[in-house]
Design the sequence.
């Protein structure tokens, strides 16, 4: 909680009468005793930038064989946008291994997500070392990227407010006053047009180079866009505060009205993914939960999930940008009625969300996945994977690997690439685990050669028979 | 910007916080006490159980380097020093930290009562070595003729509990007939920032209770009656009225000990004080200590080149008190290490590496807090103090002292926090690295892969650290600390 000294993370300001000692020395004791303030090296308090950095470094130092810290760039005020990556070979994309990301605190005053991601990083490391098989499997089979704060500048501003009651807006935007979740190129507009008039249904970001030259984009936004372009993310969640719900695409309404259910082509799997998060959060999934504020309209919330447009229209958001510019499916999770709740509630939020956070990562192993190769076994990158009945294609990554999240059902999945003949396969997809479907594509040239061969053979045979 | 020189108070704070937080927080070993825990026994004991696993982790951590045989010998043969006068209250402090010890807790060094460093009380400070031989319990034992109430181990060597310690404090107060004992101890702890006011109060109540019991129990012998339920108000009016000079409370820490020592020796307490004062003359002390230090203490100081430099820069008169405190703290720490090595809790190599880590952190924190670099840890202990710094130190010391005084109350918490955070940061890193090492050992053992390759890990970490520094993920000093920790494994 913030004191007037402006340090909401001060250990001396434990904020709890239970801890008489100012020094952190007995904190571990007190915590072990009360289980309130820390758990296995996780201290449930707000982390300012340096403390955040320190926490991530500590996780890395404890688990250097499965983690790595990197930065995707700097905020406007020069703070690093830090990411902690966890996988069995950090720094490396293993072919076939899906990539996951969590992004928190893009609104600087929505603080719970930031903290939960720090706790999550430590927790994953601890559990891995404790031999927790679920976590070990998850880390071995997934590459997990955790960015606790996309807007560290905003957070500092919000955290510097004295007292527990933080303003609804102070610290929300970045240091330039830009609301990062309205700052992404608006690809929804384009896809809505394409739906009507025909056109691409995926990878709609026209000019990637123009991103850097676009003066309207905040440095944080640019950094994230590059990040999305560089790494073949499959599944993602973006953590917010101010309400309690799991929100899925599309965020921007088709008609432009303020509230309208705007389903994406992948509405079915998105609902399933959102439910996968909310169902493990007792508050979020409680359908009889009263709204956060008396006059809130939460009529669109069902079982703890909501379509974005049905709740309220959000243009230029990061969630839809992911879906429409890349292969990544992202949902938005609102974690707390209070955007910046008192520090002593953080442990409670961790308890509420811990299982959701882990279970949501595991959703990445659903649907179909595999490799697209040519007949010689060489990977074909940027091949298109289409699913009949779903007007949204995804593409294969550099090693020819692809991951197509799908709700349970029977599907016809096709792989195609320029210069190759399309191959279609029928697949029955369960809830889980993921079904492995590989494609071997024959190039057109090869087919032509083949046909020519056949023709010659036939001619030869005819000649011999007819004695030409 | 922080003053360039090492100011006494700041270095004191620095060291204390670093020590208290680093050492205890990581649980690397019990350190100067946390008597707040006395109030809540379960809390207190649980702290032990938290520390212990980490001690085991230290025990598990590979130490590649072989300990210098002389060093290990030094570690394992704590010598008896005539530090009783200085040690007395510190033995208490130390014991408060050594809550539960190995059962094999026989009187330390009962079998090794070497006295070569101290010919007599009056000279002891002059000859006193910095990092050597501060085994208070042992001294107490020797000196007090194995008296149970004076030592902080039970006679049969079983570990003390919190209750025991409270009882011993109470007993001592009772026997000395001097509430000042308690005040001295508590004021030191408060001054060092190791306990809070409320914890001091709690301790006081605890001691008061026990003291009352004692008094009641011995009422018939001592013909003392009607004790006030309010401890502070009740002074035991004994036959032996010590009449301690209250001024000593705020002075150099060892004085009360010495005084106590003198009393038992039936010296006149006033004389004892005078002797003490003379002996505590900073100028003399500095000269003698340096002589003694550089000759006798070289062996020890090679583990503390940074600390040694820190002390050297505290050469002004105002710094004397702080210097003494620092010395005492370090000696206590070293004693702990020696004891742990002696009892087999850790190997000598681990003890050495712990001390080296400590020294590293001194360097790091000194640099952080005071903007001054001590010598690099690899260098031999210096043979002369840097003369240009001494002038700075004096001028700055006075300034800092004033600044400190004015700031002390209002910003104590913030200062504590800032330093806590800084020290805590290194400690957190140390803790995290230890966890990794522990896991590696266990992991490799389980998988029967044999020992993990420490040098490869170290190289890898060094590389990563450099890369992180370049990218702005780690600060340079943090990187150094991490590398150093790894290199000491």
Sequence:
């Amino acid at each position: 909680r913030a004191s007037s000294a402006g340090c909401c993370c001060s250990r001396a300001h434990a904020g709890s009468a239970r801890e008489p000692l100012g020094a952190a020395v007995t904190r571990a004791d007190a915590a072990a005793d009360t289980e309130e303030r820390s758990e296995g090296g996780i201290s449930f308090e707000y982390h300012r930038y340096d403390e955040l950095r320190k926490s991530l470094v500590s996780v890395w130092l404890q688990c250097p064989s499965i983690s790595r810290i990197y930065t995707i760039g700097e905020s406007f005020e020069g703070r690093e946008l830090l990411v902690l990556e966890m996988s069995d070979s950090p720094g490396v994309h293993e072919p076939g291994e899906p990539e996951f990301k969590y992004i928190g605190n893009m609104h600087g005053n929505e603080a719970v997500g930031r903290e939960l991601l720090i706790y999550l990083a430590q927790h994953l490391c601890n559990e891995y070392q404790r031999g927790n098989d679920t976590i070990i499997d998850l880390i071995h089979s997934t590459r997990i990227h955790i960015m606790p704060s996309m807007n560290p500048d905003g957070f500092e501003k919000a955290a510097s407010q004295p007292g527990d009651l933080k303003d609804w807006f102070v610290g929300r935007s970045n240091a330039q006053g830009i609301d990062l979740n309205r700052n992404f190129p608006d690809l929804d507009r384009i896809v809505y047009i394409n739906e009507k008039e025909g056109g691409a249904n995926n990878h709609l970001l026209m000019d990637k180079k123009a991103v850097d030259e676009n003066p309207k984009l905040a440095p944080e936004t640019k950094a994230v866009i590059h990040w999305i372009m560089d790494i073949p993310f499959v599944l993602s969640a973006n953590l917010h505060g101010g309400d309690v719900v799991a929100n899925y695409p599309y965020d921007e309404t088709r008609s432009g009205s303020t509230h309208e259910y705007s389903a994406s082509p992948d509405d079915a799997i998105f609902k399933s993914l959102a439910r996968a998060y909310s169902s493990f959060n007792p508050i979020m999934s409680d359908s009889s939960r009263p709204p956060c504020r008396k006059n809130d309209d939460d009529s669109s919330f069902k079982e703890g999930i909501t379509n974005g447009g049905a709740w309220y229209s959000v243009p230029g958001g990061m969630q839809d940008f992911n879906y429409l510019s890349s292969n990544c499916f992202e949902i938005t999770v609102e974690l707390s009625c209070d955007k910046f709740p008192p520090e002593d509630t953080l442990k409670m939020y961790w308890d509420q969300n811990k299982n959701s956070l882990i279970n949501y990562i595991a959703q990445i192993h659903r649907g179909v996945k595999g490799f697209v190769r040519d007949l010689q076994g060489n990977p074909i990158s940027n091949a298109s994977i289409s699913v009949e009945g779903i007007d949204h294609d995804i593409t294969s990554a550099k090693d020819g690997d692809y991951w197509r999240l799908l709700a349970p059902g029977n599907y016809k999945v096709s792989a195609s690439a320029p210069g190759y003949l399309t191959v279609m396969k029928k697949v029955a997809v369960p809830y889980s685990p993921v079904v492995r479907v590989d494609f071997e594509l024959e190039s057109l040239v090869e087919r032509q050669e083949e046909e020519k061969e056949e023709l010659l053979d036939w001619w030869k045979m005819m000649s011999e028979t007819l004695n030409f | 910007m922080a003053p360039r020189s090492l100011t006494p108070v700041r270095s004191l704070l620095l060291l204390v916080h670093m020590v208290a937080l680093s050492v205890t927080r990581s649980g690397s070993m019990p350190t100067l006490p946390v008597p707040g825990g006395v109030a809540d026994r379960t809390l207190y004991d649980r702290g032990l159980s938290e520390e212990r696993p980490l001690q085991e982790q230290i025990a598990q951590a590979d130490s590649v380097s072989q300990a210098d045989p002389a060093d290990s010998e030094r570690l394992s043969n704590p010598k008896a020093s005539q530090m009783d006068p200085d040690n007395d209250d510190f033995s208490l402090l130390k014991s408060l930290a050594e809550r539960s010890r190995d059962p094999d807790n026989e009187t330390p060094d009962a079998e090794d009562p070497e006295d070569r460093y101290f010919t007599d009380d009056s000279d002891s400070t002059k000859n006193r070595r910095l990092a050597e031989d501060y085994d208070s319990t042992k001294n107490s034992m020797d000196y007090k003729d194995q008296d149970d109430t004076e030592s902080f181990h039970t006679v049969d060597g079983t570990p003390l509990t919190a209750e025991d310690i409270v009882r011993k404090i109470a007993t001592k107060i009772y026997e000395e007939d001097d509430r000042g004992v308690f005040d001295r101890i508590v004021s030191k702890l408060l001054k060092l920032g190791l306990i809070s006011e409320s914890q001091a109060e709690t301790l006081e109540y605890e001691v008061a209770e026990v003291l009352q019991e004692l008094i009641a129990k011995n009422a018939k012998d001592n013909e003392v009656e009607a004790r006030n339920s309010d401890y502070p108000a009740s002074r035991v009016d004994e036959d032996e009225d010590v009449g301690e000079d209250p001024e000593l409370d705020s002075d150099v820490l060892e004085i009360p000990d010495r005084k106590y020592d003198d009393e038992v020796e039936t010296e006149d307490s006033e004389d004892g004080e005078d002797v003490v004062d003379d002996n505590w003359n900073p100028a003399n002390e500095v000269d003698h200590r340096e002589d003694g230090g550089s000759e006798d203490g070289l062996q020890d100081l090679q583990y503390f080149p940074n600390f040694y430099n820190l002390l050297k820069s505290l050469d002004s008169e105002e710094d004397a008190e702080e210097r003494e405190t620092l010395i005492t703290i370090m000696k206590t720490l070293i004693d702990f290490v020696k004891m742990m090595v002696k009892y087999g809790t850790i190997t000598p190599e681990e003890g050495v590496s712990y001390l080296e880590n400590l020294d590293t952190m001194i360097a790091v924190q000194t640099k952080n807090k005071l903007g001054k670099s001590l010598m690099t840890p690899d260098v031999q202990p210096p043979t002369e103090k840097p003369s240009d710094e001494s002038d700075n130190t004096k001028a700055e010391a006075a300034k800092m002292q004033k600044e400190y005084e004015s700031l002390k109350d209002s910003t104590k918490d913030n200062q504590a926090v800032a330093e806590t955070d800084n020290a805590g940061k290194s400690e957190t890193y140390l803790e995290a690295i230890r966890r990794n090492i522990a896991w590696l050992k266990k992991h490799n053992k389980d998988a029967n892969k044999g020992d993990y390759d420490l040098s490869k890990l170290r190289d890898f970490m060094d590389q990563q650290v450099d890369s992180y520094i370049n990218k702005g993920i780690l600060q340079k000093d943090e990187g150094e600390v991490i590398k150093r920790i790894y290199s000491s494994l």
Observations:
- The first helix of chain A runs from residue 27 to 34.
